[in-house]
Please model this.
Amino acid sequence: MKLQHTLEQAQERAALYALGALDREEAREFAQHLQDGCEVCAREVASFGEVVDELAFAGEPVEPRAAARAAVLARFAAPALDQDGVRFVFGERVAWEPVAVPQVNRKALFSDPQRNFSTNLIRMAPGATYPSHRHAEAEELYVIEGDLSVNGVTMRAGDYCRAEARSIHDRIHTVNGCVFLAMSSLDDERI
Model:
């Protein structure tokens, strides 16, 4: 459908289009009108586009309020983003922290205090050993890199292990070091 318009109407619509001020449907219709080949509107959009590009430099720079600046920077520095019931954790923003076992560190990805359950990225240095423990709930491990021996079975990158509630891990160790994802209860009992 070809839009009929005066030069004044073309200028008004082109200006609003260049500024991004048309609603979604109007913008779609105008874009289709341009695609259909209206040279008058295309020229007007091009000329207004140059003006719009210059608007970004027209005002004097203003230092943001300290609170606003801090809020924006915190959003980009936060280790996690919760959005519409979905949690994103940005691994490079989460620091490795030591645990009570020598040569073992973790990145805490999620903790569920109601279930007393957590999801962690675990890093073990070459030769590290994790002590025997009984599982209060099911535990799941997924090896991302390196080697991990669990109850005498050596796992490598891509391998998965699930230990049911009340089962025992006699010994967990690594020869060359490893990183793995662990989803486990905070109520596990060392034995």
User: Anything to note?
Assistant: The longest strand covers residues 139-150. Residues 141 and 161 are 5 Å apart (CA to CA). The mean pLDDT is 89.
